[in-house]
Amino acid sequence: MASLWNKSMIIANLIMLSWCVVVPPSTAELPRFDHTPTKADGSFSFLVIGDWGRKGGYNQTEVAYQMGIIGEKLEIDFIISTGDNFYDDGLIGVDDDAFFESFVNIYTAPALQKQWYNVLGNHDYRGDVEAQLSPIMREIDSRWVCLRSFIVNAEIAEFIFVDTTPFVDKYFTEPEDHVYDWSGIQPRHNYLAQLLKDVDSALRESTAKWKIVVGHHTIKSAGHHGNTKELARQLLPILQANEVDLYINGHDHCLEHISSSESGIQYLTSGGGSKAWRGDVSWWKPNEMKFYYDGQGFMSIKITQKEVDIAFYDAFGNVLHKWSTSKHLYVSAM
Ligand SMILES: *[C@@H]1O[C@H](CO)[C@@H](O)[C@H](O)[C@H]1NC(C)=O
């Protein structure tokens, strides 16, 4: 029974793939996917989840269930994962059962049978990184799209997914008892320099109305890990210079929304996919901290020509926080 059902899911996924085509890189170096919205007005919605793969434990299943309900209601077009996809140490290989136990067999709701755009978190780097990046994962479950860094073009919005783990010094200088798989990113200095250049040119060349950057690590956060100083120093100036609208991350196991007076960037943390409740919150300027929830849940975003609507949900599907912004900068049509 189960295998039959899996087979029909794979077929459904293959059909879905027909409208998500990989386009070879043109001017920018990052791989690019076109995800053309299906709604006539070009609007679309998606869910964001982070820090989730625990074989259903720590309310992962409950959160997945609510994602299915909210996803259906919002008619979502895709799902974004902010990384730490498989605890504790990523996948051990392409045949790791954790891929089924933590992903395939957990996010089973019909509304979640959409493309999943995934980045890697620091825990994913403790396993066989190449496994998560392998096209074999996509053959097993065609929802799975995971690259180190890439672009998703959804017409009115463009998403730049950034591999943030290699920026963090302490994983190199104090790995403790963890073994990180840095095989694909050496020499590190060149890798980071090229990545920053690629992100900058992708953002500069983008003509999308909304620019969104996704990474695993925080830039600004009041959670357990707090700000990631390497990203604040190296990546943030590029985001500011290119007037990025949203920076979306996980890493801190919470749901959080920070608006800073320095720029228009909204800092959105969706890291509540499973284990949470760490209880430690640092002080943050009250006028910048729009919302903080140290528990499990996820985020939804709806994007139209004029507006971005954000909502955060707990493990029961209750809306905890909502926020909207609009942009009315139209180029006058001749
Ligand atoms: C699961 O979620 C409920 C409701 O938010 C919470 O009270 C409980 O502590 C969570 N369980 C775990 C193991 O995190």
TrEMBL record:
- Keyword set for this entry? Glycoprotein, Hydrolase, Iron, Metal-binding, Secreted, Signal, Zinc
The cofactor named in the record is: Fe cation
Give the reaction(s) catalysed: a phosphate monoester + H2O = an alcohol + phosphate
Q: Which organism is it from?
A: Acer saccharum
Designated name of the protein = Purple acid phosphatase
Top enzyme class, one word, equals hydrolase
Cofactor binding, per record? Binds 2 iron ions per subunit.
Q: Which residues bind Fe cation 2?
A: D84, N122, H216, H251
Q: Which SUPFAM superfamilies match?
A: Metallo-dependent phosphatases
By sequence similarity, the record places it as follows: Belongs to the metallophosphoesterase superfamily. Purple acid phosphatase family.
